Putative sporulation protein YyaC
Amino acid sequence: MNTCFSVDSTSPNSYSEVRDFLYIKLNDILKENRPIVFICIGTDRSTGDSLGPLVGYKLKFLSLNNIHVYGCLESPVHSKNLIDVLNKVNLQFNNPYIIAIDASLGSLHNIGKVFIEEGPLYPGLALNKDLPPVGDLSITGIVNISGNFEFMVLQNTRLYTVMALADCISNGIYHFILKSLGSNNKHFNNSLENIHFL
């Protein structure tokens, strides 16, 4: 992976660092009019694995003509439907730029950090699930420490940590869109009035 970005989700204005990194990486994609699809992976049945659905829930009102969000608390994207969702995205959009968002386990000093990398993420890796890689860009939040008994670790993750990560990521994406499209953009403001969450 060529470029890796990280920020502590609890640091002041962490969302603005996420915004600025996404702006640098994605501005050319927007200029090309290429669809950007956020796939928020996870389940609301496990605190540690609920990061993706929480981010999707917070972003669902931002689905615009060229920016789309899949996965939320109501309709999560998880191991049982991930392949179907990927097939749907690739059928519906021409050459979509996919940004995958998921929780991850890591080292103790990385808990609470957001990592953004070029290239896909590998969902379900901690639980040894055989799932396809997802995304042209990956956003992961480290929710807890990796090691033995990953399933139990995810079940016993602090909601505070997950919410801090979700706030940082969703606010960063929201402000990236504001910066890219402009808060005075008529199309942007009209789109907020005509939500179409997928």
Q: What stands out?
A: The CA atoms of residues 26 and 153 lie 34 Å apart. Residues 186-198 have pLDDT under 50 and may be disordered. The domain at 4-193 is CATH 3.40.50.1450 (Rossmann fold). The first helix runs from residue 14 to 31.
